[in-house]
Amino acid sequence: MTRVWQWNRPLTVREVLEDMQQERSIAYTTVMTVMDNLHQKGWLRREHEGRAYRYEAVSTRAAYAAALMHEAWAASDNPAAALVQFFSMMSPEQREALRDASRIVQPEAGADDGDEPADTGEERGR
């Protein structure tokens, strides 16, 4: 999956093979089997092109990582404790990234979150 995410475009088995062979010896059939397995599991989609398939990631690497974290958290019998342990393992840079992400998904202070009716000013005689 790492290779497919890095290239960020549909790839043939041959392209992945040639990329991987720059680092180690690997057989075409091994790469083909792994990519077919990933397709069967729903991680890759493929489109027939000539005599080969072009494979493309179904989701982004970020979405995959988020799904793994959600799965692990959901499996915990004590989600709060799991989060505390997870946060304690983070580097300062990761904690900063968490703060940034939290600011993106949390409504701003004072914003209408739907829990209380918005103040229209009518109660003050406006």
Description:
The chain is 52% helix and 10% strand. It has 126 residues and is mainly α. It folds into 2 domains: 2-57, Winged helix-like DNA-binding domain superfamily/Winged helix DNA-binding domain (Arc Repressor Mutant, subunit A); 61-105, no CATH class. It has a two-stranded antiparallel sheet with strand order 1-2. The termini are far apart. The model is unreliable at 114-126 (pLDDT under 50).
In short:
This protein is mostly helical and 126 residues long. 52% of the residues lie in helices and 10% in strands. It has helices at 2-7, 13-20, 28-40, 61-74, 79-88, 92-105; strands at residues 44-49, 52-57.
- Note the gap between the termini: 60 Å
The largest sheet is: 2 strands, antiparallel
Q: Show unreliable segments.
A: 114-126
Discrete helix count = 6
β-sheet strand percentage: 5-15%
What is the CATH superfamily of the largest domain?
Winged helix-like DNA-binding domain superfamily/Winged helix DNA-binding domain
The topology string of helices and strands comes to HHHEEHHH
Radius of gyration based on Cα positions: 23 Å
Main structural class: mainly alpha
Q: Which bin fits the share of residues in helices?
A: 40-55%
Count of separate structural domains? 2
